[in-house]
Task: structure prediction
Amino acid sequence: MLIMMQTVKRMLMRHSVVATGVAIVLAGAVGADAQPFARTEYEAFPGWAINIYRSGETQAFLRCSAEERYGEQSALTIARSQAGYVVGFTSSRWTFEDGARHPATLRVDAGDPVTTSMRGRLLPSGPMGFTDFQPGDSVLTELSAGRRLAVRAVDVTLEYDLEGVERAMASVERCVAEHAP
Result:
């Protein structure tokens, strides 16, 4: 808890209160079960924060993630664990039931749309949707090289500027290689 509070304090100095709340809640939401965690900054560069998440009880590696804020109510998160990737989207405009699955469409640049399933979470910081991908999935390759991402779910379309995403994803891969067992 102390580590989390120190991280919150550091993040408050860099970002808005809303952005900090989203990042903290996301850490518990990416995993199947919410659990205490410790977050350590791995790297930061303009627009992106790369973090390592460990179990708060055992300090076992959970995941590395890259997070970018797009204003106070929208965020893109790319998390990588040993099991694969989770890409998360925050939007105050989404309305869905907590835990429910929703069809979603992702489109990188002018590429073909990819239909997927997004699980919704109603977090204190706002609605968030998550979708899973396996390493080597073509969506991840397109995302890494892309300039713009459009996500459509529950009748709302969000657009994300992907500047710096290639560097962020490479940093997440290095983080996992260095810290996963």
